[in-house]
Design goal:
single chain; alpha/beta; Rossmann fold
């Protein structure tokens, strides 16, 4: 299988690329999901990679379990939003990762805040950020907190997220580069 490639050379593989309709539902049970994940890992012609990011559904279900058990992981980045329910689910995923000896590189808090476009005031639509607290409770470093930002949404919707320059992303990338050296 040949992955799609973005303008800057990022390779992408998704089940969505195989469907005629982008809103097609994937109603698969564990064994079929597991075999597809393994197939993506083994049969996609990834070539030389610096990083492979696997976007997983939240929680401890079949998909995360299959990835943790079958892919040679160097480290996980756990992404969460600041709601209590999301944090509870993330803590379960962290426990599962530790049970399976999957190393966790760090945490990223998504949708932690937003800046008012008129006055620059920092607003917390989902409540105060929880990244520092989760980091302290779990002993996992917080790599960064990402804002709700219409520019990020716009770049993503246009398929050009890799073109976005944002300090928050740069900080996280710098941390990952330090780990490699």
């Amino acid at each position: 299988m040949i992955p799609q490639e973005t303008e800057l050379g990022i390779k992408v593989m998704s089940l969505n690329l195989f469907f005629e309709r982008e809103d097609e539902a994937v109603v698969w049970r564990g064994p079929l999901l597991a075999s597809t994940i393994k197939q993506f890992w083994e049969e996609v012609e990834w070539g030389e990679l610096d990083y492979l990011f696997v976007d997983l559904p939240p929680g401890t279900g079949d998909v995360p379990l299959t990835v943790l058990q079958n892919l040679p992981l160097k480290g996980l980045i756990i992404v969460f939003s600041p709601q209590d329910l999301a944090i509870m689910i993330v803590k379960k995923a962290i426990r599962m990762s530790k049970m399976l000896n999957a190393p966790i590189v760090g945490l990223v808090e998504n949708m932690a805040y937003m800046k008012c476009p008129k006055c620059g005031e920092i607003l917390y639509p989902y409540g105060k950020p929880q990244g520092e607290r989760v980091s302290e409770e779990t002993g996992i470093p917080l790599l960064g907190s990402l804002p709700i930002d219409p520019y990020i949404t716009s770049f993503g919707d246009q398929g050009k997220i890799e073109m976005l320059k944002a300090d928050e992303f740069t900080e996280i990338a710098s941390y990952l580069e330090k780990l490699e050296s």
